[in-house]
Amino acid sequence: MKLTVNNKSAYAYTGTRAFNPSQRTAVFIHGAANDHSVWALQSRYFAWHGWNVLAVDVPGHGQSEGPLCTSIESIANWVATFLDAAQVKSAVVIGHSMGSLTALELTARRPDLASKLAMVGSAVPMAVGDVLLDAARDDEDKARRMIVDWSFAPNSQLGNNHKVPGMWLPGHLLALMRRMAKGVLHNDLAACRAYTNGLDAAAKVPCPTFVLMGERDMMTAPKAALGLIAALKSVRSETIVDAGHNMMSEAPGTTLDALWQFANE
C-alpha cells in the first residue's frame, strides 16, 4: 500500500491482501535501520488469517520517502498520520526495538488508534552507548557489525537456522542495514537514546500490553524492560528461551505464536 503522508510517498506491506474495513487491523513497526521486511513471516500470517496488516516503512526507510524523523515522538506522529490516511480506526500496534518505543509513544498520544500494544525487544529507557553511537556516525559498517554481534544468540551466530535452511541470519541483517542511506543508522540510534518519555508514556497506556523479550538479548536485555513492565497498567510479559534481539527471525514461529495469541485474546 502506498499513501501520501506529509506530501511524501509512504509505504506499508499488507501481506498482498486488500484492506477490508470489516476485519481487525494489525500494525507492525520496524526497528533502527530496518524496514517492513523484518516482519515477513508474522505480518503475512496475520494477513492470510483474517486480519488487515500494515507493516510500515517509516520515513527514509525501505519504500517510504524521507526526510528522516529525528525523534521517537516524530515517528509516532508520522505513524498516526499514516493510519489516519489509511482510515484505520483502531489496531493492535506491534513494534520491535525502536519500533517498540514508537508504538508506545503512539499509544500514549493516540489511544483511540490502539486497541492493544505489543512491544518486542524493548527497553525503557533504551540505552545506546557512546561507542556504538560514535561508530554509527563515523564508521557505519563497524556499527552495523557491532549490532549484528549483539543481536543474535550464540546458536544463531553459528548458522543454526533449521526453519530456513541456507539462510545466515547475521548476514541477512547486515545486508538489510547496508541498504539504508548514509546517516539513517545514526539518526535512529540517536532518537532511541534521546527518548526520555517512555515511562511517562507507559503510565498513560490504557489498553492491554504485551512485552516479548529474548533471553539472550544483548541489545535490550530483559532486565532493562522491568521498569517498563512495572509502569504499565495492564501487562503481561513472555521471554523466548535462547533468542536474542532479532527474535522475529531467530525464533519466527515462537514469536508469531506469542503475538497471535495476544492479538486474539
3D architecture notes:
This protein is α/β, with parallel strands linked by helices and 265 residues long. 42% of the residues lie in helices and 18% in strands. The chain has twelve helices and eight strands. It has helices at residues 40-47, 72-85, 98-109, 130-138, 140-151, 154-157, 169-178, 184-194, 198-204, 226-231, 247-250, 252-264, and strands at 2-5, 8-13, 24-29, 51-57, 91-96, 114-120, 209-214, 235-240. Strand 7 (209-214), helix 10 and strand 8 form a beta-alpha-beta unit. Helix 1 crosses helix 12 (252-264) and helix 5 runs antiparallel to helix 7 (169-178). It starts with a strand and ends with a helix. The mean pLDDT is 95.
Salient structural properties:
single chain; 265 residues; alpha/beta; eight-stranded mixed β-sheet; 8 strands
How would a crystallographer describe the biggest sheet?
Answer: 8 strands, mixed
The end-to-end distance, rounded to whole angstroms, is: 28 Å
* Strand and helix order: EEEHEHEHEHHHHHHEHEHH
Count helical runs.
Answer: 12
Please estimate the helix content: 40-55%
Over the alpha carbons, how many angstroms does the gyration radius reach?
17 Å
Oligomer category? single chain
Structural class: alpha/beta
In the predicted model, the low-confidence regions spanning at least 5 consecutive residues are none
Strand order of the largest sheet: 1-2-4-3-5-6-7-8
Mean pLDDT: 95
Taken from the alpha-carbon principal axes, the silhouette is: globular
Strand content of the residues, in percent? 15-25%
Number of beta strands: 8
